[in-house]
């Protein structure tokens, strides 16, 4: 390999790299112009309210399941799991509600 050809190859590569970086910087600047359109969130206020309700219902279900006394009570093996599943169902509804 000739010493001069390596230097000119390196020099032309640097020039093309700098030109490409300048073009991408211009593209980025033009894309960041404000459009003036209001920001649209994915979820609405009602979605968040349903989600908070679901968290509360799941929490109540886990509190019903808690404790060390009478672990085979109907509350702990039937009611509490149903309440937790209902809370998950409400959360699912909160996500899918449009």
From TrEMBL:
Protein name stated in the entry: DUF3098 family protein
Pfam family of the protein (one): DUF3098
InterPro entries xrefs: DUF3098
Biological source species: Mucilaginibacter auburnensis
Record's keyword annotation contains Transmembrane helix: yes
Transmembrane segments: 48-66, 78-96
Keywords of the record: Membrane, Transmembrane, Transmembrane helix
Taxonomy, superkingdom: Bacteria
């Amino acid at each position: 390999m000739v010493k001069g050809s390596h230097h000119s190859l390196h020099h032309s590569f640097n020039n093309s790299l700098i030109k490409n970086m300048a073009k991408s910087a211009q593209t980025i600047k033009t894309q960041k112009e404000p459009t003036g359109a209001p920001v649209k969130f994915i979820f609405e206020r009602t979605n968040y309210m349903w989600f908070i309700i679901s968290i509360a219902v799941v929490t109540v279900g886990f509190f019903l399941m808690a404790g060390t006394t009478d672990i085979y009570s109907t509350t702990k093996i039937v009611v509490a799991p149903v309440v937790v599943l209902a809370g998950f169902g409400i959360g699912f509804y909160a996500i899918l509600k449009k």
